[in-house]
Queue: 4 jobs
Job 1
Amino acid sequence: MPDTQPSTDATATGSSVIDRFAELEHLYRTAPVGLCLMDRDLRFLRINERLAAINGRVVEDHLGRTVREVIPEIADIVEPLYRRVIETGEVALNFEVAGETPAEPGVTKHWLVSYYPLTSSDGKVRAVSTVVQDITELKEAQDAMRSAGEELERRVVERTAELDEAREALARVCRVSMMQGLAGGLAHELNQPLTAIVNYAEAGRATIGRADAAAQLTDDFERIIEQAQRAAAIVRRVRLFVHKGEKVRTPTDVNQLVEETVPIIAVEARRSGPEIIIERAPELPAITLDPIQIQQVILNLARNGIEAMAKGAEPGSLTIRTAPVEDGVEITVRNTGPVIADEVAGRMFEAFYTTRPEGLGLGLAIARTIVEAHHGRLDMTGNDGAGVTFRFTLPATGPSAGGGDA
Ligand SMILES: Nc1ncnc2c1ncn2[C@@H]1O[C@H](COP(=O)(O)OP(=O)(O)O)[C@@H](O)[C@H]1O
Ligand SMILES: [Mg+2]
């Protein structure tokens, strides 16, 4: 093995220690970060031009002077950091320091500062080398980004509120314009029972004084009551539809609600006499709802089923069934009877669509409006045999309890 002398770069390149020192000096001077060396009394031993510029003074103004003398503006912040490094001998990295310097009075600057102790052989900290990076622009960009984010968030909230308002306004306009269309139909609808009432009343008046007056009057009065009730029912239905709705929301046992509705359905079914079958699920979650409105939905669907079956030869059957579904309750109202025509199936939920001479065409439109206001869905499917099934859901996580919010 040849005895090779480890060759240093210096000898290899022929440059001297002096040259290398000059190189380091040059690097220190021109480094794009602020650098300084501080003695134990916090006097500047050395500082580069970059840091001197940050401080707003020339290099010579620093040397031999204390931090407090040169940059009193931030002395309170940096002195404790230096002292800690001197006491502990530990490196302190990436401190964010903010403050003003004579370089730009009145402007808050941000720096990232790291402190490196220079220790002598006895372990004592002789001096502290400091690296300072100006991160003011970065900070400002961050702040701008944060406030832009906050502004965006604020605008989203604002727009969402506006959208909600617009949606409500639109719903109101829809109701109003629907109401205007309704007025004509309503006048026509009410005209029938009112004319009938006048006729019966006149007939009654004519019988007064006659021998059989009592029996005839009883009959006339009964007719009058019937017609007045029909008029009241029409008004009630329309009112329900136009109703601006102070929301009522009560935790409700849907089975019980169905049970309470059955007697009313039974009265309506009396004439044509279909069988009424109730199938209640043994257990249902309580649903927060408006009981009057949901009862109205069940009634509207049942009424339609009864009316559809009344046209057939068989009495038929109407089945109301409750069932738990994922996150809520499902209610089905099913009737046997006529097969539904495609044309009717496609339009039945439209307001004012009716195939019945005495119909208003609002029953299903109202029912769907109510169910959707409860965040549920109402749909119809034709049965395999004959007749139809209406199905609606009421989510347990629907509108919040308490109500009152428009
Ligand atoms: N169970 C049903 N079977 C067959 N057709 C139905 C049923 N329910 C509703 N329809 C059809 O849908 C139309 C609209 O119903 P609805 O909105 O309740 O208004 P109306 O009962 O006043 O006609 C009815 O006229 C009828 O043609
Ligand atoms: Mg109806």
Job 2
Amino acid sequence: MKVASHQLRCTECSAGIAPEAAAADFRCPLCGGLYEVIYPWSSTADQTSTRTSGTVMPDVRLPNPSALRWLWQERRTSTMAVDQSGVWRFRDLLPILSNPESPITLREGNTPLYDLPRSAKALGLDFLLAKHQGIGNPTGSFKDTGMTAALSVALERGFEWVACASTGNTSAAMAAYAARAGLRSIVLIPEGKIAWGKLSQSMDYGAITLQLRTDFDGCVRILNELIRRLPIFLLNSVNPYRAEGQKTPTFELVEQLEWQLPEHVIVPGGNLANGAALGKGFREMRELGLIPRVPKISVIQAEGANPLIRSMIENGGETLIPVVADTRASAIRIGSPASFRKAVQTIRSTGGWMAQVSEQEIALAKAEIGAEGIGCEPASAATLAGLKKLVASGRVTPEERVVLILTGHTLKDPEYTIDYHRGTLLRDDELATATPADLNLHTALRKPPTVLDADTDAVLRTVESVLQTPVPA
Ligand SMILES: Cc1ncc(COP(=O)(O)O)c(C=O)c1O
Ligand SMILES: [Zn+2]
């Protein structure tokens, strides 16, 4: 039997498979489930069939928790790219490469953790932080952490072509890392339904960009046909190596909190891979004795793209009920999420929640995050909007320490922000759903640009009139 540093394990039926033996669509041939990467030290390694996988994993002993913490800290002072990366600095916990010292890296990760004092106060919470995956990551979204991992695997396996279907951020990240690796990339995006910032990135990084007259789910269907016919490495989030990179913000987060754990982490949900990846990161840290427990992981969807919520309500999450997705938070406009089962498992096993939020609630939350000097793209703001609901329903209590994962940079979708501040984003019927307090907040937060003649008196008059309006608390 071949010895490998890791195996793939079906998250549905637990069958193991050798890394190179996975089908091009990364689906289990026995049950159609998705894979996750397991290591000799994973708790699930024992339940996984080595007979079906044809590989054995060596009996690897990891350094003890304090040695690992020390090693990760030491690497911060190194000038090597692999150490400066906020993903590969933790490479001991993602040994997926034969040559772990030279991944395809753009110094991803190392993302900031901000407090949100005004939002915390408004919600009556003592502790509210935002881990901003849109800041620090080279293409401005959390997808970079997964792409550095999966693209490095593609290169090691000798692929020349990579491809993804995307609502925009995956394609931006894939195009950048593929260019870096010298590989060719094909992007399938829904025509007219992705933010300009993201579309411009995939062109900038030299991808073959195909805008299909369909939605994201339609792009996925075409992509599955393509990979059946051509030797292409699939880089959608069904690729289990993406999760290996996307789990690393959990390591960073606990380091930033000096190994204090929050009670609750909240993510926006689209294809539903990110929450599951973060859950894996926390779970592995607990298994290795780095942390004592796993925080709750909650997932927030837009009302118009809510297959997770609908399926949970209608059948307890047993089967996916796809929807025709529609939301201005284009990153999460996904009706048939590939990682539905993984997300259900993550929410259940961590004791997390889910919530759905309206277009009006997302727009308000985004403006509030902007007014804290941070900003984010609309999908990311769903986290704050969802938190408000979880607080209102008593599911989050005031002493709970909450971390929102902000997934994308505010400049990804400037059109949305401009429309909001000009007052052209929300329809009257959408605004009519806001409470009087929220309507006041919208009024206070909206800052439309004023066009004036280049005349000092006119400018002074405008500034004086603005000075008379109260600043929101
Ligand atoms: C900014 C942003 N937030 C959230 C998501 C949703 O992540 P996931 O598809 O892993 O649920 C995406 C996915 O494209 C995204 O781009
Ligand atoms: Zn299976």
Job 3
Amino acid sequence: MRSRDTLRARAGRWLARWAILLGSAIGLAHAPAAATAASAPSGKAEPPRPNIVLILSDDMGFSDLGCYGGEIETPQLDRLAAGGLRFTEFYNTARCCPTRASLLTGLYPHQAAVGHMMEDKRLDGYRGDLSRQAVTLAEVLHAAGYATYAAGKWHVTRSVKQPTGNWPLERGFERYYGIITGSANYFRPNTLTRDNAPITIDTDPEYRPKDYYLTDAISDQAVRYVNEHRQRKATAPLFLYVAYTAAHWPMQAPAGQIAKYRGRYDAGYGPVRQARYERLKRLGLIRPGWKLSPQAGDWDRVERKDWEARCMEVYAAMVDRMDQGIGRIVEALRAGGQLDNTLLFYLQDNGGCAEEVGRAKPKEAKKQLPMPGPEDTWIAYGRGWANVSNTPFREYKHWVHEGGIATPLVVHWPAGVKRRGELEHQPGHLIDVMATCVDVSGAAYPAQLNGHAIRPMEGWSLVPAFQGKTISREALCWEHEGNRAIRVGRWKLVAKGPAGKWELYDVDQDRTELHDLAGSDSDRVRSMAGQWEGWARRTSTLPWPWNPPYGEPLAKKKKTKKAG
Ligand SMILES: [Ca+2]
């Protein structure tokens, strides 16, 4: 096990070496903008530092990828998994903004002031704009000499029209292409931005494809960054953050791509879930004793089955298209001789999304809805398919039951991870990505930056796990919209909503959270609830903006008589 102190000591040794090499004192409080890009120390001993490519997708479930039991065709990610390591119990934080804030900073989301979305709720943990008491991966790695690039969705700032302190170039990235906000039309995205300049697909001088599609644009831009980096800065390692909006609603994809999946979901939710469940067991991704959670939708009662099936056809097409793009990024690294020493992470920001966006009610209105897919539609794939995406788990994006927070993590690094095609069953969390990047890069995690004291990182380096060793940690905790959870070893305490009762599960026996043990083990419930509350107060999760305030009973709603 590698302690934080050991990590810091190691980072300190790197720093001292670098300060000498650069002939200038790089202090712990060094501003990244002023840092000098440095090549890896020449001479003896230290192997070259790896490139780091961090790929995040949006609103996808645990079992969507082929290498996680899904039927969607993802040969590129499957190949990375076969040549690398798949984590089976890795976690995000159940929603777009908090996950991005946590992933980028190595803190719990509330510590980065993004406990909820992009609105200021006037509480420390809920300001809706990335805290200056947090540093981003790009700030840390850039200060250590990495060239830093981002392509895709940003979504950690309230300011979507102009840079006011928390746009990518203001948080450590040298180059950026993507959308500042959380969702967009895939054929004509809003808040499209190049570096610090708002653009549109018609005004962008650098990228004018015949048929614009946001997923392709993010992939193409990432490939450009890899190639430009090789041409211009070959001596510095690269940090590339690729944040796809696939497969967040709206369900939109090129018609030809959707056609590939035509008819594949005609049998409805149940058979797809069952097939995924069996594959998950066969692949060893879940234990045979974990029962499949209940199905969310009844296919027999779906009136427009062709429309409902099309939702999933488009979703699959969106994921497939992203996978193709990831293949192009990997190929660019390979062609430049960079792939062997690139540490690539792939993960997802929250579970499958049950939000009923664009899925009209009542039934009469639903009959009028167009088939999803084209530019002029704005439709989510709905609860039934989200439940399929999250097979075998319960719940969805927003909730902190396993369906909301379980994510694949594929790690591929031929020079650094010798476990090929293996599964890693230790739990891990987004907060570990910062600690891992600091570990492998030798970067210094700063105590202060630009006059702000920086909160210590919360995670643990995953490098021991890469080597098959155990990481011992006390607990992992979650909160989103009053949904709460803590995991300590095999035990998970979880609740729905700010007034919800705690449920207790033995994750080793029952990761699908079907047998609540809270009634029979009240001592453990009390103890873990106390531990969660201690975490929540320490991380600015409490006080929270939800009703009721933590620990208070839900006020009864007053009945109001309608006029007339
Ligand atoms: Ca999301």
Job 4
Amino acid sequence: MEDGGEGLRFRLAPAKVTIASYPRKQEWKVTMKTTGNTILITGGGSGIGRGLAEAFHALGNHVIIAGRRKQVLDAITAANPGMTSLALDIENRVNIRSFAGQMATRYPALNVLINNAGIMRVEKLQAQPDDLADAESIVATNLLGPIRLTAALLPLLQKQPRSAIMNVSSGLAFVPIAPTPTYCATKAAIHSYTQSLRYQLRASTTEVLELIPPYVATNLLNGASDPRAMPLDKYIAEVMDILKTQPAAVEICVENVKGLRFAAESGHYDSVFRGLNEAMANVSH
Ligand SMILES: NC(=O)c1ccc[n+]([C@@H]2O[C@H](COP(=O)([O-])OP(=O)(O)OC[C@H]3O[C@@H](n4cnc5c(N)ncnc54)[C@H](OP(=O)(O)O)[C@@H]3O)[C@@H](O)[C@H]2O)c1
């Protein structure tokens, strides 16, 4: 469950942001095609990952979905002939290494990695268990997971004539909600890491994108039936439209997330932070 969706827009300062505010690709940089790719989507068994998987599959890409729940993955590949799956626990560094080895063997044409798998948990910072198990799981899954998987697959991606890495962050990377502190911190960190990765790869043929969702109706934190969340099908349609029509964008921001993404740039950060946190004070699942 995240904020920044339609129902809370009235609380957010209007994002007076022009297209020039976006980070943009260098002129010569390759543009991720939306067809003809071999695409790995972590967390492709549900929510945003599944939505992207089905949209890319419908466009004629070979999509491989990965996650822990084999039954869930099997149901989706059965419903989408040609789509394939591979089990992955991105919290587990050993598993990531063997997974990357299997990917290289089975899918040597892999040219797009979408780091989408993630977890979101409420944490009460004044009443935490000694082992900080939730905080450690969130960091391992949302931050170390994409870092490790990117490192393991980068050599394969860079063998291809053109390739792309898309990291999924969040509007909450830019304005955190206090009930989910480690989650928001991992998303801010992924935003930062993505910028460095993009800069280090600037002279290569691997482009680096960041998908920045608003509050979208999925089961991430029981938000699937929250009327304030953006419907998943509308979100995926807007994302695919941006990918097709705005090839220079490196941050994929639907309209609903701009209030959060550009809160600081708009000069309204404090009021956006306050409004968002007042609205989300009761998050407790
Ligand atoms: N929904 C929102 O409002 C929202 C807003 C901003 C950003 N996001 C981001 O969007 C991404 C997708 O979230 P979602 O909303 O689509 O939620 P979701 O439906 O719960 O999807 C999360 C996916 O991650 C996978 N996953 C979790 N832990 C994993 C692990 N250890 N190893 C491998 N896969 C794992 C899950 O599959 P298994 O359980 O089968 O492993 C699941 O398919 C996340 O990174 C989330 O932070 C979501």
